[in-house]
Amino acid sequence: DLSQGIINTIAIGPAPKFLKKSNVYYSYDGHYFYSSYNNLVHDKKINKKPYYNYYQFVSHRSTSYLDNSIYDTYLSRYNITKKATSYPCLDNESILYDQADAFFRIQNKYAINASMMYALALNESGLGQSQYAIEYHNLFGHAANDENPDNANQYSSIYGCIKQHAFNFLQQGYLNPKDTRYKGSWFGDKASGINVNYASDPYWGEKAASFYYHLDENGIDKKKNPIKTVQLSKDLKVYAPNKKDVLYSYTKGNIVSIHILSEKNGYYKVTSEAPIKNNKIDVNVLYKNNYAYIKKSDMK
Questions:
Q1: Alpha-carbon separation of residue 83 from 66, 127, 223, 228 (angstroms)
Q2: Most buried residue, 91, 104, 285, 287, by most Cβ within 10 Å?
Q3: Per-residue pLDDT tens digits for 78-114
Q4: What's the whole-model pTM score?
């Protein structure tokens, strides 16, 4: 509420280098920044190129290298030290306590970033203290839409919920370039990424990214998972490992973020958004070291 000066504060990542610590800035999208509200209204931005926060735009197909203990260490900041067994739970209890192993087991099987899933669970379940999380084992708000939140899916276990999230919701849906829900495999915002279709909250992407940022406070995952994020000035084709067949493509103007594995001979070798079989997308098979190629000249 700009007129009343009432705000909420959330840290989503390191500040862009072009911002000065002592100054106040305005931004409506987190990509362009303005030195005053008047400059925002008149589009007098201070940065010519858009800024993309790493934790908001890293792919779910990246890998988390965090130690399992970091999850419970994070919960301890909220004085959570026990696993919840019933709802309502005590203030020091959470259904997510001592559950790190389940997230990393799913990462190992389905190749989806464990800490991004955990960050999303923290955001959707109120630190693992919500009724749906405790009674339904529903960590991600599956089917709990705004019109009928009690329609939330019920699962028999935490592991079963994470498995459903990774394989059915993500691999076959939000990470599937051939699915209507697909807008990119990153948390994103209302312009690109999972948040285009996952949640009605326009700042859902920032909130999920904030949890991941705090989990990765030493920057371990950020260092090991380099990305490149741009708004395309031309159409972009993503090629199969044979560098001939086109797996999927993006149109000019889209915001695209790629997880870079290596660079060689004018190509980026990147993680594919979906599993590949016989040089084609196949979301019904397990994702095993799948990669794709993008021409560096197209990534502009």
A1: 21, 11, 32, 38
A2: 287
A3: 999 999 999 999 999 999 999 999 999 999 999 999 9
A4: 0.94
